[in-house]
Design a protein that fits this description.
Layout: H1 8-19, H2 46-56, H3 59-67, H4 71-89, H5 100-119, H6 123-150, H7 161-174, H8 185-191, H9 196-218, H10 255-269, H11 274-286, H12 290-303, H13 307-323, H14 327-340, H15 346-357, H16 361-368, H17 384-387, H18 396-406
C-alpha cells in the first residue's frame, strides 16, 4: 500500500497483521510466569494429597501444582486411582481412603490442569492430562457398573459425562492444539448421538484437524478470505499431504468427511442450530460441493438469529462466488456483511480485493480506509472471521466452573 492506494499486497499485509491478533483472553503468558509454591499436603500418595487440596482448598493452586508433574507422576497417580476403584467396586460400604467423590474430583482436577496447560501453550501437558481425565472417567463408570451388578448401594454421580466430553472437545479447539493421537470427537459423538452441542463440538474438532493437516502441507496462507478455500486440494477436497488425507482408523473417513457427518447429526438433533449449518457449508465447500454449500449459507444468513452467523454466512458465500467468477454476487454479499457488522475487517478486505480486481481502485481504498484507523484496532478480535477457528460459542468456562463446584467439599 503506497500513497493511500490499496493493492493486493497491501491487503495481504493488513490481513497478516490482523491474523496475528487474538482475543486477549486467549493470549498466553510465558510458562515462567507460573510461580506456585508447593502445597503443604497431608499423608497419602501424591494424587490423594492433590485431590484433598483440590476438594477443600485453592483449586487453581492445586491444579498449578499438578501441572508440574511428569508423565511418570501422572501414570503413578492413575495406578493409585485404579487400585482404589478396584476396592470400591467390590466393597458394599464406603471404605477409608479414596472414595467415589475423590475419583470424580481427580477427574475434574486433571481436566482443570489440562485447561491451565492450554492457557500457557503447554500442549503436550494439556493432552496428557485430558487423557488422564478420560481414564479416570472410565474408572468411575467401571465402579458404578460393577457395584450395580453386585447390588451394592448406589453412589450419586457428581460429574455428568456429557459435561466432561463437551469440555474435552472445546479446549483443544479453543487453543488451536490439534493432536492426532488423542482427540475425543468420535468417542463423544458416538456416545451422545442426539446431543446437538456434542455433535457440533466434535465436528469442530474434526474440522480443525483437517485444516491443521492442510496447513502442514501448504503453509498458513495470508490473503483475502477466499484463501481459506485452498486450490491445491485433491478431487475430494482433502490435501494430498499424508496427514490431511489420512483415513481415521475407526471409520476409514477423512477428517472433513467426519466433520460433515457430525454437523449433519447436530442439525438432525436441532434443526435451528445454525452454527452447524454454517460449518457444514464451509466443509462442503472445501470438498468442492459448492451448490449445497451456498444453499446452507443462504439459509443460515436468512434465518440465524445473531449477527455473527449472518455475517459469516455472507463472507463464506462470497468466497465461493469468487471461485466461480461470480464477482457481482461476491460484491453484493460482502457489502451485506459490512452492513451487518460495519466494524469488522474481513468483509472490507474481501470487498476491496474484488473491487481492485475490477479496476475500481478508488472504491477499494474507500472500503478499507475505516479499518485502517487507530480507532478500528479494538474491533479486530471481535471479527467473527478471525475467531471462527476457535470453535462454537459454547461457554467452556461455565462448564469448568460447574465441574469444580460439584466436587468441592
Amino acid at each position: 500500500m503506497q500513497g493511500g492506494t490499496f493493492t493486493a499486497a497491501g491487503a495481504n499485509l493488513v490481513l497478516g497483521l490482523i491474523l496475528c491478533v487474538q482475543p486477549s483472553a486467549l493470549v498466553a503468558t510465558a510458562p515462567s510466569a507460573l510461580r506456585v509454591a508447593p502445597v503443604a499436603l497431608s499423608q497419602g500418595s501424591p494424587i490423594e494429597q492433590a485431590v484433598a487440596v483440590y476438594r477443600g482448598g485453592d483449586q487453581r493452586q492445586a491444579a498449578a501444582s499438578v501441572l508440574r508433574w511428569s508423565q511418570s507422576d501422572i501414570d503413578a497417580g492413575l495406578q493409585t486411582l485404579s487400585g482404589a476403584a478396584f476396592v470400591l467396586a467390590g466393597t458394599e460400604q464406603r471404605v477409608a481412603g479414596t472414595g467415589p467423590v475423590d475419583l470424580e474430583a481427580a477427574l475434574v482436577l486433571h481436566t482443570d490442569v489440562a485447561v491451565l496447560a492450554a492457557e500457557y501453550d503447554l500442549h503436550e501437558a494439556m493432552w496428557s492430562h485430558l487423557r488422564a481425565a478420560r481414564q479416570v472417567l472410565a474408572l468411575v463408570e467401571q465402579v458404578e457398573r460393577r457395584r450395580n451388578a453386585a447390588g451394592f448401594p448406589h453412589f450419586p454421580r457428581l460429574v455428568a459425562p456429557r459435561e466432561w466430553y463437551l469440555l474435552a472437545l472445546l479446549v483443544p479447539v479453543r487453543h488451536m492444539s490439534i493432536d492426532e493421537r488423542g482427540t475425543f470427537a468420535a468417542e463423544a459423538a458416538d456416545r451422545f448421538p442426539l446431543d446437538a452441542d456434542i455433535q457440533l463440538a466434535a465436528g469442530c474438532l474434526d474440522e480443525a484437524r483437517a485444516d491443521f493437516n492442510q496447513q502442514l502441507h501448504s503453509g498458513i496462507r495470508v490473503g483475502p478470505p477466499r484463501a481459506t478455500w485452498a486450490d491445491d486440494l485433491g478431487p475430494t477436497g482433502e490435501s494430498a499431504y499424508w496427514g490431511g488425507n489420512r483415513l481415521t482408523r475407526r471409520t476409514q473417513a477423512t477428517p472433513r468427511e467426519e466433520a460433515t457427518r457430525r454437523f449433519r447429526a447436530a442439525l438432525a438433533a436441532d434443526p435451528e442450530r445454525h452454527e452447524a449449518r454454517l460449518r457444514l457449508g464451509r466443509v462442503l465447500g472445501l470438498l468442492k460441493q459448492r451448490k449445497p454449500a451456498l444453499d446452507l449459507f443462504e439459509q443460515a444468513g436468512r434465518d440465524a438469529p445473531d449477527s455473527r452467523l449472518r455475517y459469516l454466512a455472507r463472507i463464506l458465500a462470497g468466497s465461493i462466488f469468487e471461485l466461480e467468477d461470480r464477482w457481482d454476487d461476491a460484491e453484493r454479499v460482502y457489502r451485506e456483511a459490512i452492513g451487518i457488522l460495519p466494524g469488522a475487517q474481513s468483509a472490507r478486505v474481501a470487498l476491496a480485493s474484488v473491487l481492485e480486481r475490477a479496476g475500481r481502485q478508488a472504491d477499494a481504498n474507500a472500503v478499507v480506509a475505516p479499518g485502517l484507523s487507530p480507532d478500528a484496532s479494538s474491533a479486530l478480535a471481535a471479527d467473527p472471521m478471525w475467531t471462527y477457528r476457535l470453535g462454537p460459542p459454547i461457554d467452556a468456562v461455565a462448564i469448568l466452573s460447574r465441574l469444580r463446584t460439584a466436587v468441592r467439599r
